[in-house]
From TrEMBL:
GO terms for cellular component: cytoplasm. GO terms for molecular function: phosphatase activity. InterPro entries: His_Pase_superF_clade-1, His_PPase_superfam, PGM_Phosphatase. It comes from Heterosigma akashiwo (Chromophytic alga). It comes from the Eukaryota. The lineage of its organism: Eukaryota, Sar, Stramenopiles, Ochrophyta, Raphidophyceae. Coiled coil: none annotated. This is Phosphoglycerate mutase-like protein.
Amino acid sequence: MRRRSLLKTAQVQINKQLGTYSQVVARQATSCKTVHFVRHAQGIHNEAYHKYGKVSNTMERFEDAELTALGKEQCATAKAEWASARGRHGYGPPELVVVSPLRRCLQTATLAFGQYAGQVPWVALEEVRERNGHHPCDRRRPLAHARKEFPHVDFSLVKDEEDVTWGDGRWRESDEEMAVRSAALLKFLAGRPERNIIVVTHSAFLLCTFNKVVVCEPELRRWFANCERRSVALDFGADPATRQLCQPEASTLTIATDEPAAPKS
């Protein structure tokens, strides 16, 4: 009887101490990685879309779009916000920067996180580029331009000098095709030794990742604003059914073993 009373009292005290933290889960730290997903800052194609609408999507002058003056200001703000977030949430310095080979992402990564250039690996991946096809803004320039402008980035995993994945411009990549690229990114991250990683990518790719590849709360399914960062903890557990993706500051998600139902609009 006394033991039962002690257990009840202890449970009350535990609940009081934990408050809104109804459940605290301990996992092996070796299976977890912190990933900071960042959308690029405003590009000239974004500015044109606001001015001219969809017709701007097919304008050749926006090929491999660069940042606007506002976009560069957004990067400066993101750099300051990152320093503040590191203090608030105890993030360590990144050990790896993964970036799309498109110019606006390379610029964003360099302006917002350039203090880490030369200190940690910077890797360009075709897998994290924007939706392929039809829109010239999403067609990259030959690699020679990027290598010259961003010498701190390793482009060795980008196989082709010319952009062969964008296609002939008559089609636009499907969500399903992008989801395969997203899964390839997760596999790449799982195989890397680094545990604190920045990924600078694009809005459609991020939307596909959080809606097609991972199961998550509605808040995390929403569109990323220009230069927005969302920091998550990826748990690459041995059992695919228990792999989880969680936002330390907010919520928990599960990596889908099958494609989830489409989210409600």
